Amino acid sequence: MTLTVTNLILRAGLLFSLGVFFCLVLNLLQIQRNFIHFPREFFDSIKSAWWVAPSCGTAAAIIGLLYPCLDHKLGEPHRYKREWSSVMRCVAVFVGINHASAKIDFANNLQLSLSLAGMSIALWWLFDRSRSGFGLGVSIAVLATFITQLLVYQGVYRYTSPDFLYVRSWLPCIFFSGGITMGNIGRQLAIYDYVDDSPTCSARKEHTD
């Protein structure tokens, strides 16, 4: 199998753009609900949190490229619901999970966290169901939560009413579902990037459940 550099760059660019777009939309939801607060001096110094969107775009590109690469390395190609309509539904569910975290009033943070955890697992079950996808999603959630905690600790921004050290306890659920979503987008974009002379392999790639 060979992977062209041009296709790799195009995929990375598209994933980066999608990551920036999702970041702007989802952060707007959180800011409107007053979950995220940037200190005034932070805006005064650089006028806006310019680094957030590019950082999310870079993370989205890495995740979207890593999922199909990991599938290939493990020899376990992901074939469950490999069509764009399924990917779009996955994106819609992911946005819905974020909308629920920002708009629905839960009795307490524990109820919110458990509800989002259930929805995140359901997203993985409906649109992924792979062990590699689940493991990578958990790793992304842990790493992203740790980085977020460091940023909050440094005073870059803060979450109102944090209940898990410096951050909200439901953040890992958002990161997990985001990782699964970007992974599915990356997998779908990569479906034609690998070329193999074997007709059996080609037939497998065209198969969708």
TrEMBL record:
Membrane topology: Multi-pass membrane protein
Lineage: superkingdom: Eukaryota
Keyword vocabulary terms for this entry: Cholesterol metabolism, Endoplasmic reticulum, Lipid metabolism, Membrane, Steroid metabolism, Sterol metabolism, Transmembrane, Transmembrane helix
Main location: endoplasmic reticulum
Keyword Transmembrane: yes
GO cellular component, one term: SREBP-SCAP-Insig complex
GO biological process, any: cellular response to insulin stimulus
Localization in the cell: Endoplasmic reticulum membrane
InterPro entries on file: INSIG_fam (IPR025929)
Family the entry assigns: Belongs to the INSIG family.
Listed name of the protein: Uncharacterized protein
Biological source species: Owenia fusiformis
